[in-house]
């Protein structure tokens, strides 16, 4: 029996429209994304990646890489695949990877339908991607599908804990946040419920503890 929970896709026309809008808007945000996000989120990216066991030759997937804000905190001797849906974001990410000296394969791809075989990666980095895709469950399922047994997943996003309700500020801001870019109240524990993973770490990071970092091992 597959360890992955079934995902019922929305109607094709609805799904296509949602994905198209999300990709288009990130192309609009690309020129200013680093100015807005880099300073605020730098420490969260650094602290999350410091938990991973990244040796020379480790096969790593950087999923939904955006402009590559994780890249400065990764060793250069890993085997790195970089995926994002936005061509504009990828252009900036590719430039950053080259500047930092990475020999990385940077390409456009869909986090909800990855073209890698099962168990291909030793490490999957999913930072600030699950909360922005149209189908979070599908993206998380794919991240764990391509992760090897005993591999590590670094999950950093704007997620709630367990059954806790969203706070007043999250509830007030979330409608606008979802329209602009992201869901502030992703139920990460529910998304992981059907998966066999061991939690190696779980803590709040980022401005005001807005982000939740989960360091997971696939078992």
Automatic annotation (TrEMBL):
Keywords: Methyltransferase, Transferase. Residues 60-151 form the Methyltransferase domain. InterPro entries: Methyltransf_25, SAM-dependent_MTases_sf. CDD domains: AdoMet_MTases. SUPFAM superfamilies: S-adenosyl-L-methionine-dependent methyltransferases (SSF53335). It holds the Pfam family Methyltransf_25. One of its GO terms (biological process) is methylation. It comes from the Bacteria. GO terms for molecular function: methyltransferase activity. PANTHER family: METHYLTRANSFERASE (PTHR43591). This is Class I SAM-dependent methyltransferase. It comes from Cobetia crustatorum.
């Amino acid at each position: 029996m597959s360890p992955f929970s079934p995902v019922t896709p929305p109607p094709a026309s609805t799904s296509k429209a949602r994905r198209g809008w999300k990709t288009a808007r990130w192309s609009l945000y690309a020129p200013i994304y680093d100015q807005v996000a880099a300073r605020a989120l730098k420490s969260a990216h650094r602290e999350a990646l410091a938990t991973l066991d990244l040796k020379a030759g480790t096969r790593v997937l950087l999923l939904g890489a955006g402009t590559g804000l994780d890249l400065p905190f990764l060793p250069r001797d890993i085997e790195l695949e970089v995926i994002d849906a936005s061509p504009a974001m990828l252009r900036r990410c590719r430039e950053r990877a080259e500047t930092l000296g990475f020999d990385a394969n940077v390409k456009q791809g869909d986090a909800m339908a990855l073209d890698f075989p099962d168990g291909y990666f030793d490490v999957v980095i999913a930072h600030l991607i699950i909360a922005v895709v149209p189908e979070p469950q599908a993206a998380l399922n794919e991240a764990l599908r391509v992760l090897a047994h005993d591999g590590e997943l670094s999950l950093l996003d704007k997620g709630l804990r367990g059954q806790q309700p969203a706070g007043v500020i999250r509830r007030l801001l979330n409608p606008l946040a979802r329209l602009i870019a992201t869901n502030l109240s992703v139920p990460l524990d529910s998304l992981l419920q059907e998966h066999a993973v061991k939690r190696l770490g779980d803590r709040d990071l980022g401005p005001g503890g807005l982000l939740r970092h989960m360091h997971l091992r696939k078992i």
